[in-house]
Amino acid sequence: MPSDPDHNKLISRREAILRVSTMLGGVALVGQSAMLAGCTTEPTDDKLASAPNSLFTQGDITLLDEIAETILPETSTPGAKAAGVGPFIAIMVVDTYYEGDQQIVRDGLNSLQALCLSSYGTHFQIVTAVQRLALVEGLDAEQHHYMETREEGAPVHYFRMLKELTLLGYFTSEIGYTQAMRYTETPGRFDPCAPYSPGDKSWADHS
Amino acid sequence: MAEEEFDAIVVGSGISGGWAAKELTEKGLRVLLLERGKNVEHIKDYVNARKGPWEYAHRGGRTTAMQDAYPVLKRDYPLNETNLDWWASDKDSPYTEIKRFDWYRGYQVGGRSLLWGRHSYRWSDFDFEANARDGIAVDWPIRYADLAPWYDYVERHAGISGSHENMQQLPDGQFQPAMPLNCGEELVAERLKGAFNGRRRIIPGRVANLTQSLPGRSPCQYRNACWLGCPFGGYFSTQSSTLPAAMATNRLTLKPFAIVTHLTYDRDRKRATGVNVLDAVTEKTVEYKAPIIFLCASTLNSAWILMRSATDVWPGGLGSSSGELGHNLMDHHFRVGASGRLNESSLDLKYYAGAKPVGFYIPRYRNLFGDNREYLRGFGYQGSASRSGWQRAVSELGVGGAFKDEMAQPGGWKIGATAFGEMLPNHDNSIGIDETKTDKWGLPVLKIDCEIGENERLMRVDMMNDMAETLESSGVRDVETYDRDYTPGMGIHEMGTARMGRDPKTSVLNSWNQVWDAPNVFVTDGSSMTSAACQNPSLTYMAMTARAADHAVKELKRRNL
Fold first, then answer.
1. DSSP B406-461
2. Do B65 and A186 touch (CB under 8 A)?
3. Prediction ipTM score
4. Is any Cβ of chain B less than 8 angstroms from the Cβ of A201?
């Protein structure tokens, strides 16, 4: 039940659940006000997982995929695009964000494209991987500085939202669990003090 | 409507009701077990138990539609996608908050035994003597010695893993081997032995998770996915433990979708005669009769049933002649503590494998053994140490391949703990029937008026600062304290509202959990608690229920009921 987002697994389930919801919660907290204003969002049908939805066109989803892949690219393990992170972000923004936050993401994507246009003269989906990384690194620095210094209650930076959803989408995907990290659905045993070698991957938690 | 007769009726199928059904059937009685919600069959209905997070549309999180549909549940961690079916609907079953009260309910066979945190600690005479010593509320009518053999009894069947620590304030029990501390927890536990005169001790949490098999149940498989239902029966629930035992007698009738609206009462004999049941699906009513009734409907709901029973004799309901029915509502207050970094080179090359479903426990040390604080009673801590996971990436600066690969590896060690404090019984913390509001079935709902007081506020200062001091004395770095605010109910340890006592003028139940005004009605869930202690209460409900069932059958044979 307790609730410290900063330390993992403090009180098993109660803690773990809150940790995940807190992840989304930077956003969910902002969403409360939208809820009070009475706006509601219908849940998205599962089957529409990779299809355009009420907020995002297929082109948007391709863009989200490319942004996510730039944040978490293929290395020795598959990247965000292979893990379906673009469509995942589209679902999450529609189903779990209230209207105000949805607008921040929409406006953010436009501003990212505008920045890309002014920097490189063309769309994010078309520029080189090196240019994409440079742009995304700049946005990451910008959001990080903003989030560290923002006043309490100020809106979340759109790129923090995208980064958070990218991390969540990737590290809770099957690829994230079984390839980026290590996952045993039923460990069957507990070793309280196992040797760790630098580079060993994390054990992923059961859902 | 035709009546059906049984030897005993048990209302509610959670931790207490499951035990009542097991004990009464095993003693030869034909028992009707009533549950207001749906059935949940062991293993078969644990539909999400094997799923990975990617098998949920929102990875187990919460949608805005869910938040809108669950205005209470969303206030804390319970609202989630993985086991939503096991939390009661706020819309179907509303209640009135005179002051904010977070009520998280499990309306299905097994109740919250499917969802509970499983920490299982005995209470001690420091707890049972507390009210008498402090001159607060009323004295418990029992002492530790009355419950000790029943703790032994329920621990063996439920399966509690834990370590023997020989601590007067946290008596040892019939334990299976403990789930060991991990190396981060162990390091801090060792260091702590040299501080605070050894009064603050980190011990493995005692939990209702098996480390050895029991009939029909496997040991814990270290999945830490208990609240999805365990396909191995690795933790205690009604389904894994008490219901199979009751079923095996062939004397149990289980009826889901059966909402008890009130007890029927014979004013001449001063006995309840049965229960009136509303079918949650057909909305038809039916009456069942039995010479023994166990109310185990969960703290607030057992009191609700009493308040609606025998109102022709007492307008406030059965048990209200004391003036205490519905009063003295308690919970454990928490969400306060500290955490920090375990920056030790000896731990860099250490990790753990398997997911332990429990961390450590620090038993109460305040206001014991000569310690005197400006508040009464005390608190314990639940905590754990772990290496951080990918979640740390959200607030860290970084993108790209090297960042991704680094975040797929464990980060540094952290340790922290949250305090659980005793809440004093207070007559003003009460519930009543709100006649102006009804639930989905047209039944009037509860109104709840409860808040913490000055004693709890003073205690919270220690609950926070003590943990910082404890961690810092053990070499933990960058210690940060927190108090995330607490609202009664959030502990999901509701207690009181039909307290036990020594005098019918000031208590609802006697020393055997019998309603003074109807001795064939036994209330053995959290409602019966006279004070709250600071230890998790469920194990005490189990022991109390088994003890009361034993007494009930003896009294039945003596023709006293």
1. HHTS---EEEEEEEEE-----TTSEEEEEEEEE-TTS-EEEEEE----HHHHHHHH
2. no
3. 0.95
4. yes
